[in-house]
């Protein structure tokens, strides 16, 4: 077999064996699999005329880093607007909006994203603080959780939204004041879409190029794959077009949504959709929601939050959700369910337990996404049911505070805020933990995710104390969350996530060892090379 790639003079780090390998070089065959591991001399001897040979000069090779929860198409579109995530208070938001308004053409829309509800302090979240700045300007400002948004008065007028509405999603709401007038706050997709559908949209060509640029940036940041948690609109066609043109730099595993109201025909369509895919992408699983978010009061908690909210499931009839999990399980389709609150997580685990009891392939693995607060008796059930725990440590870093003065913690109260992102407890209970960013909710660079899982400090100010340091992972455990954990979550542990002969040559090359670099310095470690199937998707100038 011919050799596609040789990497030599390297330090090889395999999280499956727990650390460095004795080998200093690897070769990749024409099939895109690792064909040899050994010393420089013997592996370089495998190179032929068409082999790409790279001297890594002592750099560290890990299995390709995989983002366990990402939204590339949505992220590429949303992050084209005004980034409000650096704004720490209302004055900063007003200043940023005012600067953007000054550059707008008359009648043009203003789009913003990443707005932190903590900027409102004790004020209700609404558009009123920005009325003077946005007077006459149609604006749509997505809050950081992407489950809620603020619409300006003009945007609401253009959308014909002048009072409360009823939605199939139990948590969706056009928030109104005591007189029935919209405050500008829109909760969940059903409400947000009322305004989004009247806003101008980019062309398909613009969307395709924006997606390609975002994926290239991900590859340059060290990612070789992603578990994509939506297939909205024509996103599958966009992936297929990039793949056919050889422009897809990541291996993507896509889970389309299943929303409340989906009937038996809808479930069959989702099962049929599992056949779609290409060389580097495929539909593999279904994404569901069991609740919304704690910050906007739409999570599902076993006890109400301190505002009396977060008391309902996303599905008006949770039993219908349970039935669909059973149907998908029997069809051999893995599921990933957004479940943030303790009641939501418990219901998902109950549903999976019932599904497994009715038959189907026991090898089908289901997932719970986010798991932001859960009680002790929930932890052991992940391992018992072989349910993957999919978590985003940078959410804990950047959206909560160690002193519990943030919106998330205040809503939950001390006891439940003390159960924030229990990564350590889940790993210790035997669960498979996969880590991700949930981009565009948080930045996608995987070294930031790795570092956050270890230090749990605000990335804007790493001198601040960590939130729940007892839940920190070790560097090796964090690395596994983006390599071996991601592979197991995909049911591909036999061919991915490790540096082993016969495994896929999806590789990330770093300038320093992620197991020994201080966690707070990890995001600054240069990514020198990434490869998918042994084909280079990013190569730094110095190599």
Automatic annotation (TrEMBL):
It comes from Streptomyces termitum. Pfam families: Amidohydro_3. This is Amidohydrolase. Residues 53-537 form the Amidohydrolase domain. GO terms for molecular function: hydrolase activity, acting on carbon-nitrogen (but not peptide) bonds.
């Amino acid at each position: 077999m011919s050799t596609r790639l040789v990497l030599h003079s390297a330090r090889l780090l395999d999280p499956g064996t727990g650390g460095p390998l004795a080998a200093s070089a690897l070769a990749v065959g024409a099939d895109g699999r690792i064909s040899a591991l050994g010393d420089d001399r013997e592996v370089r001897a495998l190179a032929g005329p068409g082999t790409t040979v790279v001297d890594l000069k002592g750099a560290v090779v890990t299995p390709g880093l995989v983002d366990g929860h990402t939204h590339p198409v949505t992220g590429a579109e949303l992050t084209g607007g005004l980034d409000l995530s650096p704004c720490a208070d209302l004055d900063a938001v007003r200043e940023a909006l005012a600067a953007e308004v000054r550059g707008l053409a008359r009648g043009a829309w203003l789009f913003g994203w990443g707005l932190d509800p903590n900027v409102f302090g004790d004020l209700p979240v609404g558009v009123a603080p920005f009325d003077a700045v946005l007077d006459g300007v149609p604006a749509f400002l997505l809050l950081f959780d992407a489950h809620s948004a603020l619409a300006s008065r003009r945007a609401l007028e253009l959308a014909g939204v002048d009072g409360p509405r009823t939605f199939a999603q139990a948590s969706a709401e056009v928030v109104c004041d005591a007189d029935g007038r919209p405050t500008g706050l829109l909760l969940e997709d059903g409400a947000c879409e009322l305004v989004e559908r009247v806003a101008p949209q980019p062309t398909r060509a613009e969307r395709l190029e924006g997606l390609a640029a975002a994926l290239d940036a991900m590859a340059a940041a060290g990612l070789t794959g992603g578990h994509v948690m939506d297939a909205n609109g024509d996103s599958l066609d966009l992936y297929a077009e990039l793949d056919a043109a050889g422009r897809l730099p990541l291996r993507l595993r896509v889970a389309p949504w299943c929303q409340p109201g989906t009937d038996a025909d809808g479930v069959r369509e989702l099962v049929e959709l599992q056949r779609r895919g290409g060389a580097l992408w495929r539909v593999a699983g279904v994404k569901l929601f069991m609740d919304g978010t704690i910050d906007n009061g739409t999570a599902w908690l076993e006890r109400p939050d301190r505002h009396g909210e977060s008391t309902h499931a996303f599905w008006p009839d949770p039993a219908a959700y349970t039935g669909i999990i059973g149907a998908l399980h029997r069809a051999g389709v893995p599921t990933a369910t957004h479940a943030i609150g303790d009641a939501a997580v418990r219901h998902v685990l109950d549903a999976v337990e019932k599904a497994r009891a009715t038959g189907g392939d026991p090898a089908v693995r289901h997932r719970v996404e986010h798991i932001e607060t859960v009680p002790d008796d929930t932890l052991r059930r992940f391992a018992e049911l072989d349910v993957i725990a999919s978590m985003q440590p940078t959410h804990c870093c950047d959206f909560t505070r160690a002193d519990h003065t943030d919106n998330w913690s205040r809503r939950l109260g001390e006891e439940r805020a003390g159960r924030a992102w229990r990564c350590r407890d889940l790993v210790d209970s035997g669960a498979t933990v996969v880590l991700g960013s949930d981009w565009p909710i948080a930045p996608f660079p995987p070294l930031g995710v790795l570092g956050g899982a270890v230090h749990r400090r605000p990335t804007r100010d790493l001198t601040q104390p960590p939130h729940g340091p007892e839940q920190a992972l070790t560097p090796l455990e964090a690395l596994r969350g983006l390599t071996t954990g991601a592979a197991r979550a995909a049911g591909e542990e036999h061919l991915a996530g490790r540096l082993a002969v016969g495994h896929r040559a999806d590789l990330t090359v770093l300038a320093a060892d992620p197991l020994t670099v201080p966690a707070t310095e990890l995001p600054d470690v240069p990514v020198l090379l990434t490869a998918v199937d042994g084909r280079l998707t990013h190569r730094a100038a110095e190599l």
